[in-house]
Amino acid sequence: MEITGTYNWILVAISVMAAVGASFVTLSTVPRIYSSSSDRRSLAWVAAFGLSLGAGIWTMHFIAILALKMPIPVQFDISLTAISLLLAVAVSSIAIYPLRFSGGLKPSSLRTYFIGTIMGLGIAGMHYSGMAAMRMNATMHHDAVIVMIAVAIAIIASTTALLIANKLRDTHIFSQLPTKTLAAIVMGVAVSAMHYTAMEGMSFFETTTKLHFEAVIEPLIMAIFILIVAFLIQGGIIIVALFDEAYSTSKSAAKALKQRADINQSLSEILSLALESRTLSETLSKVLDVILDIKWLALDKKGSIFLADDKKSELTMVVERNLGEELRSLCSTVEYDRCLCGIAAQNKKLLFKACLDNDHVTRPDGVTNHGHYCIPILAPGGLLGIINLYVQHGHQQNDEESTFLTAVADAVANIIQNKQLESQADKIFKAIDQAGEAVLITDFNGVIEYVNQAFCSNSGYSEEEAIGQNPSLLNSGNQDVAFYEKMWKTIKSGEVWQGEIIEKRKNGSFYPAMLTISPIRASDGEITHFVGIHEDLSEHKTLEAQFRQAQKMEALGTLVGGIAHDFNNMLAGMIGNLFMVKKKMHGMPELTEKIERVEKVGFQAADMIKQMMVFARSEEVKMHPLSLTTFIKEAFRLHQIVIPENIKLDKQIDSHKLIIMGNPTQLQQMILNLFGNAVDAVKKTKNPAITFRTAQFYADQSFCTKHIGAKSDNYAHLMLHDNGQGIEEAHLERIFDPFFTTKEVGKGTGLGLSMSMTIVKSHHGFIEVKSEPGLGTEFHVYLPLADEKEDLKNIEVPSVAVEGNGEIILVVDDDSNLRHTAAEALETLGYKTMMAENGREAVEICQSIAVDVVLLDVVMPEVGGPEAAREILEKNPMAKIIFATGYDKADSLLSFKGIESIPVLSKPFKIQELSKSIRILLD
Questions:
Q1: 304: closest CA among 377, 354, 395, 407?
Q2: How many CB atoms lie within 10 A of CB 248?
Q3: CATH assignment of 274-430?
Q4: What is the mean pLDDT of residues 121-134?
Q5: Which residues contact 212 (CB under 8 A, 6 or more apart)?
Q6: Count of alpha carbons within 13 Å of 750, Cβ hemisphere only?
Q7: Cβ contacts of residue 425 below 8 Å, gap of 6+?
Q8: pLDDT digit string (tens) for 328-379?
Q9: Per-residue pLDDT for 904 more than 60?
């Protein structure tokens, strides 16, 4: 017979509440599983979860059984009851175990549903094993459909419970109370629904055979026991969870405080590095050490820092730690978007990798699995670099690490920008400090705050002497007060002032300068300082003077070249006539000697013209070995003429030969110029005296330092001293300038000393002047000695003119006087002569008459000498021609193309030289 029972709805409600309460406690233990710092504690909380949920379900189950009132006695089997309890605890613990790991359970994962199914089947097994523990004089029958529904409810409830637990695993016990309460109600009702659904599928039939029960528990005792145990278990678990949470919170807070302290200390150390005087690479090396030494970051002691080049889209490693030689080489430069660092650079975002993956393309041989933090160093202007750090394989990224490393990158960005600004500022400072122009910076009131090296060099004031002073220390007095007032008015109005002024050095000397003063403005536009750039124009003025001198020399060359021809023609006519006079005064030695002196002066005048042309055109002169001692002794015979008898002359000529490579004409001119100046200098002196000495001199180091180009060697030293009025210091610097003279107007050309300087330089020598007003002037000339083994040039002895044998000489010159003089002189030597005044006449004469020698002037009207010579040679290739020119010989030769072999005589020439040249051609 079927037995039916009725429910005690109070106990039914209690059973549901027990399930809900157990669910709440269970959900509160989930965060403890996930947040436990050790495996042992985590496993303990897994067991606590299983005990809470399993005992809760089991409690609901037995209270629900007690709620069913049967008309027959019901008792329970202790063994099966214990098994049902252990089964509920075990499956709950096993199901929650995956929540220990960070991955957790996901709704889309098959694993979640598999675990939920196992847990549901375990709960169903607990239910039916608990039902099987019932002992009564009746049999139980189960409806298969209802059983399946109950099992399905158990699986769904279990899966839902696991997903809810996974969702709430990182919460505090009493946080999100509405969510937890609702979740506990859903779980409790679902578990209760499974039980009551399963109970609905059960049927009881009374048996005829009465059973005798042993070792059974009375239902009332069982209910009381279950309630007490359930309360103790759930209450104990929730209390322990509260204490554990409080402990963990305290520990986490302490850890967070320590981390914050470490963060602050690390950031402070990093920022303080920016204040140290290190290079950027040294600073970044220290930064990397600070990062790798932070223990709580759990980093490997490996890493590197790259600097970015946006133009090349490339990273360059500047510092590294423990990377190894191969990796250092492979990662010395990294392109944007290549490997992890390049990807972080391209995206400008922090990149974390827990292991090696496809993005990690740079892999040296033998590399082990590892992870990375790649943190971009960003600034408003773009990417500055990348910090690359290594972590263990499987490392879990967390917000604290990311936040800290981002803060470090920001600090490093400031360091890089500051170092770049420092480097730029240092370059600008060095550029200003080492500039060739003097730079001076003052405050608004004109007090000097900065001067550069060129200022100190130009002005003679040291930095310490100048700073704190006013720029007026450079005032020379050449500019009046109104000038400076206008200057200050201009710059204080915010405009730039520029002008040429004369400034005074510390030693009192003056120098020209181009001064530019600009205002320096603050960010608000207010003028705070002034910067003055003083360009020393001394060299510029010197170059300008040299340019003017070159113009003067060009003008002089033009002048000399213009008069040389006519002057030489005059000299040639004079010397020719002297030759004829001398021949007619044969047997009158006294008159002949005087005529020879005049003749010699004429030739020296011609040499003077040549030297002036050389001086004006800076042309090379021919040098040959000569004894300076012998030369000076010979030269004094001429110089005595220009030295008045009232001047005491003290000559001290060295006995050594003093062999030099020199040009006699130039040397004579130099000595003549020096003596001429000395004579003029002592004219107003009471007891005029001139001292002249020659000696051998060895150039020591001080001499070589003083004279650029000098060598440590032997020199011939010439000293000329006068006791005249002396030369003022202001004039000494210009004493060798062309056309500069201290003499009265009309008393000097200003070319003497300038020509002397040119002559000395052409002999690779040096000239010095020393003078004091009232004490006289002293000139020193140093000429390098030559090897004494050099052959000395013999002094030419005037040769006797070679007589002619009636040969016809055609004299061609546009100067009538010279033409007739030359013809007459040649006739006295036994030649027959013909004359022509230009090249056209000469060509016509040569075509009509057989001429033995043609003496051709080079420059003539209508047809010049070279053109006429070509026509004559074209008609008669055997014609003999001699050129004569009053112009510069070198210039004349330029027009002799094709006829270079024709001999050339420079006017004025000696008749003996002409006759010798004629005989060479004829013989």
A1: 377
A2: 17
A3: 3.30.450.40
A4: 75
A5: none
A6: 15
A7: none
A8: 888 888 999 888 899 999 888 899 888 888 888 888 877 888 888 899 999 8
A9: yes
> How far, in Å, CA of 404 to CA of 398, rounded?
10
Enter the tokens of residue 597. Answer: 């002196």
Q: Residue 237: name the closest of 92, 390, 91 by CA.
A: 92
CB 904 within 8 A of CB 893: yes
Domain 434-536 is in which class? alpha beta
Q: One fold for both 274-430 and 434-536?
A: yes
Separation between Cα atoms, residue 212 and residue 137, nearest integer Å: 9
SS3 767: strand
- Report helix, strand or coil for 776: strand
- Rounded to whole angstroms, the Cα distance separating 54 from 122 reads 10
The two structure tokens encoding residue 252: 């986490």
Distance of CA 561 to the CA centre of its chain: 55
Domain ranges of the chain: 2-245, 274-430, 434-536, 620-784, 808-922
Shortest CA distance to 739 belongs to which of 551, 608, 543?
551
Strand partners, 2: 205
Specify whether the CB–CB gap between 354 and 361 falls below 8 A.
no
Structure tokens at 349: 């975002």
Confidence of residue 793 (pLDDT cuts 50, 70, 90): very low
C-alpha 882/C-alpha 572 separation (Å) is 16
CB-based contacts of 723: which residues, under 8 Å, 6+ apart? 682, 685, 687, 688, 689, 775, 776
- Give which of 118, 157, 122 is closest to 19, Cα–Cα: 157
828: burial class by Cβ within 10 Å (0-12, 13-18, 19+)? Answer: middle
Q: What is the per-residue pLDDT for 746?
A: 43
SS3 367: coil
With tokens 């001076």, the residue in question is 440
| Class in CATH terms, 620-784 | alpha beta
In CATH, the number for domain 808-922 is: 3.40.50.2300
DSSP 230-273: HHHHHHHHHHHHHHHHHHHHHHHHHHHHHHHHHHHHHHHHHHHH
* Dihedral angle sign, alpha carbons of residues 852, 853, 859, 865: positive
Is 637's pLDDT higher than 70? no
Which DSSP string do the residues of 533-587 spell out, in sequence order?
EEEE-HHHHHHHHHHHHHHHHHHHHHHHHHHHHHHHHHHHHHHHHHHHHHHHTTT
Residue 547: pLDDT over 60? yes
Determine the distance from the C-alpha atom of residue 863 to the mean position of all C-alpha atoms in its chain, rounded to a whole number: 68
| Amino acid found at 118 | I
Please tell me the distance from the alpha carbon of residue 267 to that of residue 414, in angstroms, as a whole number.
Answer: 12
List the one residue out of 487, 52, 426 whose CA is nearest residue 241. 52
Q: Are 666 and 622 in contact (CB under 8 A)?
A: no
Q: Evaluate whether 727 touches 786 at the Cβ level (below 8 Å).
A: no
Write the burial class of residue 813 (CB in 10 Å: 0-12 exposed, 13-18 middle, 19+ buried). buried
Within 8 A by CB and 6+ apart from 107, the residues are 163
32: nearest Cα among 16, 18, 52, 17: 52
d(C-alpha 18, C-alpha 23), whole Å: 8
Tokens of 111: 């694993």
Q: What is the reported pLDDT for 794?
A: 41
For residues 865 and 902, the answer to whether their CB atoms sit within 8 Å is no
Contacts of 876-879 spanning 24+ positions with Cβ under 8 A: 876/846, 879/846, 879/851, 879/854
Q: What are 836-851's pLDDT values in tens digits? A: 999 999 999 999 999 9
Is 316 within 8 Å of 309 (Cβ atoms)?
A: yes
CB 816 within 8 A of CB 837: yes
